[in-house]
């Protein structure tokens, strides 16, 4: 895939490959790899959820809660440490991803409401509520993948 062409059409930052940044540590990458893995696993579980097997459904919903709690913790740590460091070097350098974080916290609240509604729903309501949760979680994961790319490229360069 041509990352430059993709960036132009999707407004996603191209992957930086020039020598001045290639040998510098990218503090975002390890935790983002872990978050991407958990997001994919959780999304797949929600996509195949059996809403008529209560134990399996509740286990999957607990997995969603775990993911959302980890995302909130990650946001707090990035705001406190990474954004502070970036803004010290480049005023408002982390403004874009900081604004994303505000939206992510709001989305996490809405997803938690959907998890609770599905957990409390009767059997007739569960299929529609599970599909709704799956679709909204998919959008959250997609947005996070783009967001993490910006952090790993644009924010890392600003921090350096």
Structure description:
By secondary structure, the protein is mainly α. It has six helices and no strands. It has helices at residues 3-10, 19-22, 29-47, 54-89, 95-120, 126-159. The two termini are 27 Å apart.
Write the layout of secondary structure elements.
Layout: H1 3-10, H2 19-22, H3 29-47, H4 54-89, H5 95-120, H6 126-159
Helix pairs in contact: 3-4, 3-6, 4-5, 4-6, 5-6
Summarize this structure as a short list of keywords or feature phrases:
elongated, single chain, mainly alpha
What is this structure, in a nutshell?
The protein is 79% helix and 0% strand.
Q: Quickly give the structural class.
A: mainly alpha
**What would the principal axes of the Cα set say about the shape?**
elongated
Radius of gyration using CA atoms only: 18 Å
Series of secondary-structure elements, N-terminal to C-terminal: HHHHHH
Question: For the terminal residues, how far apart are their CA atoms?
Answer: 27 Å
**Share of helix, binned:** over 70%
- Integer average pLDDT: 90
